[in-house]
Amino acid sequence: MDRQHFQSRNLWPPQHTVRPRPLLEQLVERHRDGVQLEFAAVSDKLAGIIDDAKWLLGLKDNFDGRGSPRYSKDTLDRAIAFVRLQWQEYLRLNVEPMPLPEIGPGPQGSIDIFWDLPNLNLLVNIPADPKLPVEFAGDGKDRGRFDGTLVDPTQPNRGLVSWLTS
User: What is the largest CA-CA distance in the chain?
Assistant: First the structure.
């Protein structure tokens, strides 16, 4: 081949060329944006629920007239850490936000975390004494009932997270 007649050709388009995106790619991106917006809104609601639970710390000893102890910051912190941990595990497994729980007073200075969904509910009790086990009970309209204790409440619990998946 004669070098005079050989012309190099650039097979790659110039960097400033914008390739049109296929419709499917655009739809996936819009869906992803919608999921991100939904996740952000639900995440903000979860932060609000966690913030609202701090009212428990304002209750004094015998607030109910039955000798109940006040709620400690340590117990509330453990309850919040538990909710956040399960939230992350749910998100990891389902790629969508977890249903929102209620965080409220439990017996003897413990804190209850309660999910009340149309087809099931789940109650997790975080005891005031960190040496005591965390107990849970679930009731699914068509799935039966179960209860037990958590071996390590500082780890995500796939069983509880799966229970919340409707």
Answer: 103
Q: Could you give the count of Cα atoms lying within 13 Å of 157 in the half-sphere of its Cβ?
A: 18
> Looking at the whole model, is its pTM more than 0.70?
yes
> What is the per-residue burial (b if ≥16 Cβ within 10 Å, else e) of 93-111?
eeeebbbbbebebbeebbb
Long-range contacts of 88-95 (CB under 8 A, 24+ apart): 88/156, 89/156, 89/157, 89/158, 89/161, 90/161, 90/164, 90/165, 91/39, 93/158, 93/161, 93/162, 93/165, 94/165, 95/35
Q: What CA–CA distance (Å, rounded) separates 121 from 84?
A: 18
In this structure, are residues 136 and 145 in contact, taking their beta carbons and an 8 Å threshold?
Answer: no
Q: What percent of the chain has pLDDT over 70?
A: 74
Residues in the chain: 166
Answer whether residue 75 shows pLDDT above 70.
Answer: yes
Secondary structure class of 128 (helix, strand, coil): coil
